[in-house]
Amino acid sequence: MKVWVNGCFDVLHIGHIHLLEYAKSFGYVFVGLDGDIRVKELKGNDRPFNSLDIRFKIMSSLKYVDEVTSFDSDAELKSILAYYQPDIMIIGMMTTLKVLQNIVKGMLRC
Asked: Which pLDDT does position 52 carry in this prediction?
């Protein structure tokens, strides 16, 4: 199975490793890294701590990761996903929480 995982992965920690290990248990793991501009937009002006080149090198070296790409916009992400056509998408908690926050904010505006 083709498995998609994406995120900033700016400061790699044990939670990231567990997430990638879990993803690998399903098959071939393709990781999408948020580009530097996107990380800055998501995390603040003092981020990323590690440039995309460094994050790409680190992610590529992990045994749970088979392939790495990057993207700078939602449109680019959608294009990559359309091309890759993953069977499974593994979503980390930070992304999930952000999506839930946006849903709640939208509900409160109604």
From this structure: 96
The rounded average pLDDT for each run of 10 residues, N- to C-terminus, in the chain (110 residues) is: 93 90 95 93 90 97 98 92 92 54 52
The pLDDT of residue 43 is 87
CA distance 73 to 35: 8
Q: How many residues does the chain have?
A: 110
Domain harbouring 16, CATH code: 3.40.50.620
Q: pTM here?
A: 0.81
CB 20 within 8 A of CB 5: yes
Residue 2: CA count within 13 A, CB half-sphere? 11
Look at the chain and report how many structural domains it folds into. 1
Q: Tell which residue, 37, 38, 41, 20, has the closest CA to residue 29.
A: 20
Domain range holding 67?
Answer: 2-109
